[in-house]
Amino acid sequence: MTQDDDAPSPVRKQHEQMLKLVSKGFFNELTKYGVNHAEVLTVAGHLLDNVLQGTQQTGPDPELYNRLFTVKDVRDEWSATKQLSLQQVSLVPFDLRWTSNLMDWLKVPAARDSFYPQFPEKEAELRKYVTSAGRDYFCILHEGEPSGIIGAENIDAHSARLEMRKLVGNPSTRGKGIGKRATFLFLFHTFLIRKFYKVFLHSLDINIRNLNLNSRFGFALEGVFFEEALIQGRRQDVVRMSLTNPVWTGLFS
Question: Cα–Cα distance between 163 and 151 in angstroms, integer?
Fold first, then answer.
């Protein structure tokens, strides 16, 4: 056996990278809630106890969203009215009259600082940003009311790929699954209407919930840019995940 035979495969390396990333996200979550370093070791011991006891997973089924959404559930009125809908959530092309809503949503530090790079802070620059060439944004409507924004940046028609960005900004509509439905509609538009091949995203929100949510839609980890972004004077890692048309249509059609 050669040295190359002993080397881990690219798939194994990616899996190990994901485990390392999830561990870091879990550690960050613990410390955010006041768990000190000594107590983290105690938590690690409890995790090991659960493994040894064969504790079964009690959280949501990993295939939950695959069962909830299929392409047949989408009300496709794009050719007639430029609207896609799924369970009280709709996507329509972004209209500049919603810029003030977007400004209000981005005033919340947690929302503003979650993007890399960040959206412009001045309204005139923001209006120009979301309507400029190379970008294609939609307003997320929940029961007809604006709840957020989702769209494409770095659109490369030649390679049929684009970057996805999303914000559910209306605080009264959070926790209702609006972001999940909006993401599904955006992927429906990208893969089935535009016929693009690949969607990728960058995330500063490195935690287990966010990584797990993206993976349920078929996104896979492509890499981690360590200490890539400077947010409020602190270096943060940036995660890149991607999804291809064949993977998504295989899961949800």
Answer: 8
Q: pTM for this one?
A: 0.75
Does domain 64-252 sit in CATH 3.40.630.30? yes
Q: What is the mean pLDDT of residues 151-171?
A: 92
Output the pLDDT for position 46.
Answer: 61
Q: In Å, how far are 81, 138, 218, 252 from 92, measured between CA atoms? A: 9, 5, 24, 22
The DSSP H or E segment spanning 141 is strand 136-142
What local confidence, expressed as pLDDT, does residue 14 receive?
A: 62
Q: So where are the chain's domains? A: 1-58, 64-252
Please report how the helices 99-106 and 123-131 are oriented relative to each other, as an axis angle in degrees rounded to 10: 110
pLDDT at 62 over 50: no
Q: Is the dihedral of CA 105, 248, 236, 22 positive or negative?
A: positive
9 versus 79: which is more confidently predicted? 79
Give every strand in the sheet of 136-142, ordered side by side: 75-76, 84-86, 89-93, 136-142, 145-156, 161-168, 198-203, 234-244, 220-231
